[in-house]
Design goal:
Layout lengths: L20 H7 L5 E4 L6 H8 L4 E6 L2 H10 L7 E5 L16 E7 L4 H5 L25 H7 L2 H12 L4 H12 L7 H12 L5 H16 L1 H13 L2 E10 L3 H16 L1
Length: about 260
């Protein structure tokens, strides 16, 4: 089973462009049953199904992703099923109880569709609401987190998730501003970032800080830490576990886990 030559873009959708689809197909070659733990627009699932995987189960915590992917992959009939849920809490998904897979895939982070949908609040475009929840299972939204978290916890979030050297200054600026005006839209956080980091702050700084808040809202790194061993236990003997990570914190967690397993 090999990826089709010149296939770049053929598995893209309005929801997401899976830039490593060919590599995923190569790594999961020979798998009979695959769990796509971050279904998104279904690009990876489509690539796997078109390249001979017998059955793919896709899970996502975002109902809009499930709807888009489900419609896109309906032609595969019983070879594909979409299940609402969070890969980090597989034990809570009754439909998958006791199931094992020959291949498991995680494509971490946020999709282009989620970034482009201003109502979801993932971007720093002017006027976007401070939401950032990936699904209804998130305990809080960005506005509430910025309103309620202690200065020390905000400092930790910006230092650990954004590698921000002025994390403490930014946390203090947020606490100072929220005392007189609630954080409701992207403009409120952008102005706080500018106030703390200076007038030369650019889009790269906004992207880092907004990403850090999103990671905190969805508890992404702790979810990943909890999920990896549980997902490993769902692998059939000889199975393959593929993780695509973009954030340094995600990359570190995955590499440490895989290294530990390889020496156990």
């Amino acid at each position: 089973m090999t990826a089709v030559a010149g296939s770049k873009g053929r598995w893209d959708s309005e929801y997401h462009a899976p830039v490593l689809a060919a590599e995923v197909v190569s790594l999961l070659a020979g798998a009979r049953r695959v769990l796509d733990g971050t279904l998104g627009g279904g690009g990876h699932s489509l690539a796997l199904l078109e390249n001979g995987v017998e059955q793919v189960t896709g899970i996502d915590r975002d109902p809009s992703a499930l709807s888009i992917a489900g419609e896109r992959l309906t032609r595969f009939g019983e070879r594909f099923r979409a299940v609402e849920g969070n890969y980090a809490h597989l034990d809570r998904i009754a439909a998958l109880e006791g199931e094992r897979f020959d291949g498991i895939l995680l494509d971490l982070g946020v999709s282009s569709r989620q970034l482009d949908d201003e109502s979801r609040g993932f971007s720093f475009r002017p006027g976007a609401p401070l939401d950032m929840r990936m699904g209804s299972d998130a305990d809080t939204d960005a506005a509430t987190l910025l309103a309620d978290e202690r200065e020390g916890e905000l400092t930790r979030i910006f230092r650990e998730y954004a590698d921000e050297p002025k994390a403490g200054r930014l946390a203090r600026e947020i606490v100072r501003r929220r005392a007189t005006r609630p954080f409701e839209t992207s403009d409120d956080l952008v102005n706080a970032i500018r106030g703390a980091l200076g007038a030369r702050t650019d889009a790269g700084d906004f992207a880092r800080i907004f990403q850090a808040v999103r990671i905190a809202v969805n508890d992404e790194l702790r979810d990943l830490e909890r999920a990896l061993p549980a997902l490993r236990d769902r692998l059939a003997p000889g199975g393959a576990f593929v993780v695509i990570a973009y954030h340094s914190g995600e990359d570190r967690i995955v590499k440490n886990a895989f290294r530990e397993w390889s020496t156990a």
